[in-house]
Write a structure and sequence with these properties.
Blueprint (H helix, E strand, L loop, with lengths): L1 E5 L7 E5 L5 E6 L5 E6 L4 E6 L4 E7 L7
Antiparallel strand pairs: 1-2, 3-4, 4-5, 5-6
Length: 68
Amino acid sequence: KTLMVDYTDLNALKTIEVGTARFLHDGGWDSTKRYFMVAANQSNKIAVVDAKEDKLVKLAEVSKIPHP
């Protein structure tokens, strides 16, 4: 799972849980800063999360492990 936190109001933080994959790390934003892509450790998966809609767009299967 991935936890997204809205820091707009520091006195009332909003946390959203998005179902993704286990052991995520080494991610980054696309050029629009809307989508966050992150590799799943030791699996052939990359999670794509829509930060505007607060939801998983795709858990993409890739042909090679994206990160050891």
